[in-house]
Design brief:
With about 180 residues, the chain is an alpha+beta fold. Helices cover about 65% and strands about 15% of the residues. A four-stranded mixed β-sheet has the order 2-1-3-4.
Length: about 180
Amino acid sequence: MSVFSRYARAFADVVVEKKLDPRVVEDELAVLVGIVESVPVLRTIWENPAVEAQQKHAVLDRIIARVGGSRLLRNFIAVLIDYRRVAALPEIARQFELELNERLGLADAEVTSARELSDSEKRALEARVGEVTGKKVRARYRTDAKVLGGAVVKVGSTIYDGSIRGQLERLKQELSSGSN
């Protein structure tokens, strides 16, 4: 098990044990990841052994207060600071999301369609993907005219291509391999 996974698992243990809303915790963590990624000097300060822990925690407390983060998140980030793991925060956050999804039987899906889908189309698509994956689906939607029609659904590393463009590409492959 990687170091990232250990921290992510421990954080997920606490979230599940305390019966917290995973979405809220994921959102708070995403905000902190964004801050750490967009302010490199912050990460440098937090990982610098010459800066006292008390000062590092004071900076963290100000950030948590400003973004309205929970005490749980503050304590988790403080542990990462104390053990100089802040540089790994984006990967730990990703592992945390995967760990929570696994425990809660959730699958995140990225759906790309040529046009905006109606609510009933979204529900039907999520139900179908749920049948295929055996999990409850949380989907994020976006549009891309290149899809032409239908949809492309990505769940983890698996891509389900039900787009017209994908069908045309498969037909092209079949035709070109049949002519040899």
